[in-house]
Amino acid sequence: MNLRELYINYFVSKGHKQIPSAPVVPENDPSVLFNTAGMQPLVPYLLGEVHPYGTRLCDYQKCVRTNDLDEVGDTTHHTFFEMLGNWSLGDYFKEEAIPLSYEFLTKVLNIPTERLAVTLFRGNTLVPKDEVSYNIWKSLGIKDSRIKFLSEEDNWWPNMELTGPCGPDTEIFYFRSDDEIPIDFDPNDDRWVEIWNNVFMEYYHNADGTFSELPKKNVDTGMGLERTTAILEGVNDNYLSSVFKDVIDLICDISNLPYYGNEKSMRIIADHIRTAVFISADYSSIKPSNTDQGYILRRLIRRMIRHAKKLGIDINSNFEERLALLIIEKYQNYYKELIENKDVVLNVLKEEKNKFNKTLEKGLKVFNKCILDNQDIDKETAFHLYDTYGFPIELTEELASEKGLNVDIDGFNELFKKHQELSRTASAGKFKGGLSGNSKKEIEYHTATHLLNAALKKVLGDSVHQKGSNITEERMRFDFSWGAKMTPEEIQKTEDLVNKYISEQIDVEVLTMDKEDAIKSGAECMFIEKYPDVVTVYKIGDVSMELCGGPHVKNTGELGHFKIIKEESSSSGVRRIKAILE
Predict the structure, then answer these.
(1) Is the Cα dihedral 328, 533, 224, 106 positive or negative?
(2) CA dihedral 78, 79, 85, 87 (to 10 degrees)
(3) Whole-model pTM?
(4) What's the start-to-end Cα distance of the chain, in Å?
(5) Whole-number Cα distances in Å, 407 to 310, 353, 402, 492, 534
(6) CA–CA separation, 423 vs 361, rounded Å?
């Protein structure tokens, strides 16, 4: 039995219901490009929406984090990972959550207590020290020397600035080293690796800066599958655990090179091909592009190809297909979109590989122009070659050295650092959507997406289906399946129809039913696989009926005047509408 099954079986035995993993692309959360944690798809329920499966939930969630993309290549970083999580929605709290974590680690996984340590929130002038969690850990046998109280920077979620639900957390660390275990726990010692986090949402950060206790308190926990698997298998390199070992072995076979001495490139290839497979298999139909999720997908594939070339792999071979098929086989029993969209995945990888090969040729022309002018490579050119044509700086240096030219490495590094900061901000976001999101305006826009979806079906036909949405305080963005540019008349008809639904002041009903019955009754949904067997359905009169997590307004009359401000192409076969509520 693998770690996923051990985890789910344990929490189901403790009264939790398993929920399916959400897609890697989040719905209605503009703060991040991808779901970066198990809690993100559950935000409406953490804010008070009633979950159809009750108050105790557990799952394994697909996550993509690209803020550390350039760090991938060491033993621990990944862009795709699986998060094991359990939640209490106003049910149990610290007194049960901490013992559950401890029992699973020590009794189910048989991790020795002497290898564990914990951190807690030390308190500040606004919120007191977390003495409750401290006393629970002590009662479980964790010694004082293995408990450290840290500031809000380390043990508060999301952060002290954001308003909304929030609270302290307690993080569990494992001593991952063959060295003798120190008596005292030092959180700054890299041999202590975080393996579990319990977040206790017990406060509300008010707009006036004060913190008040929540009447209904939630628990949000998470444990990384890759890191924990490596620990259980006794390896200090995640890429030598069973999660990656067969992929690494295949890369060795394709390249005819050993792992040792080529670790960095092989880790990057193994990580990036896995993430690319999951993104391109997602039901949101992400394709490589120069914006948003498509830009990340393109960057991952191209970086993977660069390192394949570095290992001497024939790029014109089907190496990427062999690796992708292995990954699909490994995960298809847990995520069936991989097998359902296998052909899509293989096509995305092959097409992007071919495009990148042409781009590399163009980059060489830019480089050769510098050589003709007998110029040293300045920082702008070096970065342009890297960012636009995918030239690693090492390749630019090598080519320049052969021609007796210099490269402004310091200048390149300066531009590269700025680029990293921008990428980190863009991909990680500020968690603005998080638990402090779902403002009144965002809830209105969320409801308006249902009306727009219904109106488009009336104007264009039933073949229209939602492909994604993005909501902020200022506007809504709605992607839908349609192969042609909408005419001005179609746009006007759609806008008028939405405003008609608003003027009719229709009540929004919340229903709970079996997923199968909901689909049979005609309820629309974007990603059917993400929903459990019992679902929440939002019904707006005879206009709309959709599976959704919420939240929504109570009556369409609350929405104001709907106005479409732009209709454009999003990707092949997908159109995009941007609209506002006035």
Answers:
(1) negative
(2) 140
(3) 0.79
(4) 55
(5) 20, 28, 12, 56, 61
(6) 26
Amino acid code (one letter) for 167: G
What is the enclosing helix (H) or strand (E) of 205?
A: strand 192-205
Can you tell me the distance from the alpha carbon of 433 to that of 422, in angstroms, rounded to the nearest whole number? 19
| DSSP for 451-498, written as a single string | HHHHHHHHHH-TT--EEEEEE-SS-EEEEEE-SSPPPHHHHHHHHHHH
Between CA 582 and CA 475 the distance in angstroms is: 10
Residue 154: C-alpha distances to residues 46, 78, 302 (Å)? 22, 21, 35
Q: For 40-129, where are the E strands, in sequence order?
A: 56-64, 80-89, 116-121
Q: What is the pLDDT of residues 194-222, one digit of tens each?
A: 999 999 999 988 888 899 998 889 999 99
Judge contact between 6 and 109, C-beta under 8 A: yes
Q: What is the largest CA-CA distance in the chain?
A: 75
Length of the chain: 582
Collapsing DSSP to helix, strand or coil, 522 comes out as coil
Residue 568 contacts residue 554 (beta carbons within 8 Å): no
Q: What value does the mean pLDDT take over residues 474-487?
A: 91
Distance CA 490, CA 492 (A): 5
Please classify residue 379 by burial: count the beta carbons closer than 10 Å to its beta carbon, then call 0-12 exposed, 13-18 middle and 19+ buried. Answer: middle
For residue 522, with 0-12 CB atoms within 10 Å meaning exposed, 13-18 middle and 19 or more buried, which class applies? Answer: exposed
Scan for tokens 């890297």, then name that residue.
386
Residue 230 token pair: 């490596």
Are 80 and 91 spatial neighbours (Cβ–Cβ below 8 Å)? no
Query: What DSSP character marks residue 239?
Result: G
Measured CA to CA, the distance from residue 213 to residue 455 in angstroms comes to: 43
User: Which tokens is 344 given?
Assistant: 């899509």
Quote the DSSP letter at residue 127.
S
With tokens 């639900």, the residue in question is: 165
Give the Cα separation of 425 and 423 in Å (integer).
Answer: 5
Beta bridge partners of 564: 579
pLDDT single digits (tens) 274-326:
999 999 999 888 899 877 888 889 889 988 998 998 899 999 999 999 999 99
Question: Backbone phi, then psi, for 194, in 5-degree steps?
Answer: -70, 130
Question: Do the Cβ atoms of 465 and 459 come closer than 8 Å?
Answer: no
